[in-house]
Amino acid sequence: MRLEIDPALCQGHARCAAVAPELFELDDDGYIAGRGREFDPALEEAARKGARACPEKVITVFE
Ligand code: F3S
Question: Is Secreted one of the keywords UniProt gives this record (predicted)?
């Protein structure tokens, strides 16, 4: 599975990292780190939780 992250939309709400710290990290300024990547399907629920938690819709999860 794959995550896509659009850092340009991030407002630093930090909810992604709060609900799914195993998948989402914040940079030194408190914005989401990275642009997306493949991830283990075993972490699908965590990925979807993180995506739902973001009010800016920064994170998209793909099969
Ligand atoms: Fe940014 Fe959304 Fe996380 S605004 S820090 S991607 S909750």
Answer: no
Residue 53 sits in a domain of what CATH number? 3.30.70.20
Q: Whole-structure pTM over 0.90, yes or no?
A: yes
- pLDDT of 44-53, one tens digit each? 999 999 999 9
Please list, residue by residue across 9-45, b when 16 or more beta carbons sit within 10 angstroms of its beta carbon and e when fewer do: ebeebbebbebbeebbebeeeeebeeeeeebeeebee
- CA of 20 relative to ligand 1 center, distance in Å: 11
Domain housing 34: 2-62
Which protein residues are within 6 Å of ligand 1, measured from CB? 10-16, 26, 31-32, 53-54, 56, 58
Total structural domains within the chain: 1
